[in-house]
Amino acid sequence: MKICVAGGAGFIGSNFIHYMINKYRDMQIVCIDALTYAGNLENLEIIRENINFKFYRGNILDEIFLNKVFEKENFDVVVNFAAESHVDRSIKNGKIFLETNIIGTKNLMDMCLKYNVKKYHHVSTDEVYGDLSLNDDRKFLESDVLKPSSTYGVSKASSDMLVMSYYRTFNLQVTISRCSNNYGPYQYPEKLIPVAIIKAIKDEKIPLYGTGENIRDWIHVYDHVIGIDKIIREGKVGEIYNISSGVEVSNLDIVKTILKILGKDYSLINHVEDRLGHDKKYSIDSRKIKNELSFECSVNFKEGIEETVNWYLNNLTWVEEVLKDKYIEV
Ligand SMILES: NC(=O)c1ccc[n+]([C@@H]2O[C@H](COP(=O)([O-])OP(=O)(O)OC[C@H]3O[C@@H](n4cnc5c(N)ncnc54)[C@H](O)[C@@H]3O)[C@@H](O)[C@H]2O)c1
Asked: Which CATH number is 121's domain given?
């Protein structure tokens, strides 16, 4: 089997490639990635020499590039991780989110139709459902109405709808996964967990939006990529699968947990002005993937977060490398 992994040099995509290449010895993986600020070849360094791995630098908005790669490679499956993924950036400059996340998705699906790719899997997010109030016990189902709050969420919801339209109109063999917040190795240091870890290691103030009461469901990236693998292999075409751990923690508690692991004082927490339109709580129901595809999370939150802190401690040169000429967004 030959898989095209779009956006494979980013956080989740690179973890997916590591997992797949180690699990399936006969699988060929071709990563295409524009290497934006969030994409780094350092994330793929340990498998760069693997004979089953190939990398093309290019943009999913560039149809000439895509045609060349798709014509040459004869893919069986396309998995799309390529996206602008940071809500804060979408508030400041939403246009690139709409371009990459919607038009880029369209381009990849057009390539699938043109070059007879058997399957397209779309990596989406729980943010498409919008948020809940903090005391609301509901969990969003795959069939719920989409009500995203940020430009990022809108771009992802739009691409999900576009994917379903390609199934209906062109019978493209699609699946979609909607996952909750991921943590783990290789996450670019602009999102809450890596920022908190790196700032805490350096004894710098950790910016925390508002009171920090906002709640997210946190899943280890390893469990997310296992879920995607299951959907690609056994998922029903035309279906959407939520993926979550059920571990719902406030941002404040996440930062406190990290500080505790590192033996640092809570006084490092710096409450800053809240994000515009900040979603209060995300909560999704993932019984469908559990019941239909026997998916279970394997990483315990306490162990996963400790392992993640240790990964950053042991990979400070990776941090320096990926942040070269770049900046941490707060
Ligand atoms: N991080 C999370 O917690 C989370 C949770 C649920 C879903 N998701 C979704 O998973 C996917 C991957 O997220 P991530 O956190 O790994 O993101 P990321 O920002 O770490 O990586 C995105 C990758 O896409 C590449 N890319 C961006 N624009 C591109 C373009 N125009 N052409 C080619 N490549 C391009 C970047 O270079 C980078 O390698 C996204 O679709 C995101 O919406 C993320």
From this structure: 3.40.50.720
Helix crossing, 251-262 with 301-314: angle to 10°? 60
Q: Which residue, chain included where needed, has tokens 């993932």?
A: 286
Number of domains present in the structure of the chain: 1
Report yes or no on 34 lying in a domain.
Answer: yes
Q: What is the pTM of this model?
A: 0.97
- Tell me: the pLDDT tens digits for 205-257? 999 999 999 999 999 999 999 999 999 999 999 999 999 999 999 999 999 99
Q: Which domain holds residue 112?
A: 2-190+219-248+278-303
Query: Residue written as tokens 């190939």?
Result: 54
What is the whole-number distance in angstroms between the Cα of residue 247 and the centre of ligand 1? 22
CB neighbourhood size of 75 (10 A): 24
Whether 11 is in the pocket of ligand 1, judged by its Cβ within 6 Å, is yes
Ligand 1 centroid distance, CA of 173 (Å): 22
Catalytic residues: 126-127, 152
pLDDT in tens, 18-73: 999 999 999 999 999 999 999 999 999 999 999 999 999 999 999 999 999 999 99
Inside any domain, residue 312: no
Q: Which of 4, 5, 11 to mutate to test the pocket of ligand 1 (most atoms within 8 A of CB)?
A: 11
